[in-house]
Amino acid sequence: MHEPVQDVRARRRSLGLGQMELAELANVSERFVCSLEQNKATVRLDKLTAVLDALGLELRAEPRGGVGA
Description:
Layout: H1 4-14, H2 19-26, H3 30-37, H4 45-55
Helix pairs in contact: 2-3, 2-4
């Protein structure tokens, strides 16, 4: 299964940013960026959207496959 954090890490690297640089751009801690890229379950949505904004990415919700899809 594809993990969205893979997109975050790949985009950060494609922009030539280190975790600290991204943290500064998104106004979050380097520790948060590290936790996000490690797919920690305690990620805060407001901080996640700040990181995505800094990378030019967006969060989208899509129907799951299976029942009701």
